[in-house]
Amino acid sequence: MKNTADFLTMKKNNEKIAMITAYDFPTAKYVEEVKADLILVGDSLGMVALGYDSTIPVTMDDMIHHTKAVKRGAKDTFIVTDMPFMSYHVSFENTMENAKRIIQEAGANAVKVEGGGEVIPIIKKLTMAGVPVIGHLGLTPQSVGVIGGYKVQGRDAESANALIEEAKKIEAAGAFALVLECVPQEVAKKVSEVLAIPTIGIGAGLQTDGQVLVINDLLSYGVERVPKFVKKFANVGQVFVSGLQAYVDDVKKEAFPEQEHTYKMKEDQIEALYGGK
Ligand SMILES: Nc1nc(=O)c2c([nH]1)NC[C@@H]1CN(c3ccc(C(=O)N[C@@H](CCC(=O)O)C(=O)O)cc3)CN21
Ligand SMILES: CC(C)C(=O)C(=O)O
Ligand SMILES: [Mg+2]
C-alpha cells in the first residue's frame, strides 16, 4: 500500500496520481485490481449510491458503513474518507471524535475536508493528532446552498488568487494533498506549481498532479446527467440492463433455469416421493 510520503515522491517524479471513488465491497475490489493509487469514499455516495440530490443529507454513520465495506474489498489500497456535512464544524471535540471513528472504527487511512480559511485550524489539529488530511478547494459541494449551485470556481484573477492563498495555508496546516474541483486549468496549474504537496483535480484540467472521478460517472452506472469534466470510459449501465433484461425474458419464457442449474433426486427417491406415479 502506498503512503502519504509516496504521494509526495510521485509528484516530485512527475508520476500522475490516479484516484477513484468506491462505496461498496465489490467495487473496491475492482478499484484495487486496477491499482488505483488511492480510493476515495466520497460523500458523493449520497447522490450516486443513496439517491439524494445533494451531499448534504449524508451522515457520519453513512460514511462509516460504506468505508468499512470498501476496506474489506481493498485491504491493500490507501483509503480516504470524506468527512460529511457539518461533521467538522460543530466543535473541536466533535470533529476529533468523528475523525477518530473514520480512522479507528472504519479503517480509513486519511480524511478529506472541504474548504479553506475556517477549516485551516481543523486541518492543523487533525494532522497533529496523527490523522492524515486531504484538503478540497474550488467547488465544495457541501456548500452548494451557500454557493447557489454547482458552478466553476476561481474564474477571475481575484478569486483565483484568493484560492491560491487558501491552498498555501492548507499545505502549511499539514495536509498531504489537495483536491481541486471545478476550477479553470490555469488556476489548477498555478496551485500545482506553488504547492509541494500533490494536487488531485476533478474538472481542473491536465496540469494537476493527479485526477479523481466519481466511479459511477466514469463507468456510466446509474447516472443520468454528468458534468462536462466527466469522460465515459465504459457503459456499465448498458451491461447491467442487457443482463437483467435477458434474465427477465428467460424467466417469462421458461428458458431459465436449465438442467445444468437444477438439482435432482436419485431415481429410487423420486419413486418413493411420487409413489410410482
Ligand atoms: N455523480 C457525481 N459526480 C460528481 O462529480 C459529483 C457528484 N456526483 N456529487 C457531488 C459533487 C457535485 N459535483 C458537480 C455537479 C455538477 C456540476 C456541473 O453541472 N457543473 C457545470 C458547470 C457550470 C459552470 O460552468 O459553472 C457543468 O456544466 O459541468 C459540477 C460538479 C461534483 N461532485
Ligand atoms: C468528487 C470528489 C472529489 C468528492 O469529494 C466525492 O466524491 O465526494
Ligand atoms: Mg466529497
| Tally of contiguous helical segments | 12
**Would you give the CATH topology of the largest domain?**
TIM Barrel
Name the helix and strand elements from N-terminus to C-terminus, one letter apiece.
HEHEHHEHEHEHHEHEEHHH
Give the helix/strand class: alpha/beta
Which word captures the global form? elongated
* Computed CA radius of gyration, to the nearest angstrom: 23 Å
**Which segments are poorly predicted (pLDDT under 50) over 5 or more consecutive residues?**
none
Number of strands: 8
Number of domains: 2
Roughly what fraction of the amino acids lie in strands? Answer: 5-15%
Bound molecules: 5,10-methenyl-6,7,8-trihydrofolic acid, 3-methyl-2-oxobutanoic acid, magnesium ion
Binding site for Mg(2+): 43, 82, 114
Subcellular location: Cytoplasm
Family: Belongs to the PanB family.
Pathway: Cofactor biosynthesis; (R)-pantothenate biosynthesis; (R)-pantoate from 3-methyl-2-oxobutanoate: step 1/2
Describe the structure.
The protein is of the alpha/beta class. The chain has two domains: 4-234, Phosphoenolpyruvate-binding domains (TIM Barrel); 239-274, no CATH class. 43% of the residues lie in helices and 14% in strands. It contains twelve helices and eight strands. It has helices at residues 4-12, 25-33, 45-48, 60-73, 92-105, 120-128, 144-147, 157-173, 185-194, 215-218, 236-252, 267-274, and strands at residues 17-21, 38-41, 78-82, 110-114, 133-138, 177-181, 199-202, 210-213. The protein has an eight-stranded parallel barrel, surrounded by seven helices. Helix 5 links the parallel strand 3 and strand 4 (110-114). The chain starts with a helix and ends with a helix. The mean pLDDT is 97. Bound molecules: 5,10-methenyl-6,7,8-trihydrofolic acid, 3-methyl-2-oxobutanoic acid (KIV) and magnesium ion. 5,10-methenyl-6,7,8-trihydrofolic acid binds at residues 44, 47-48, 55, 139, 141, 150-152, 182, 214, 216-217, 223, 227-228.
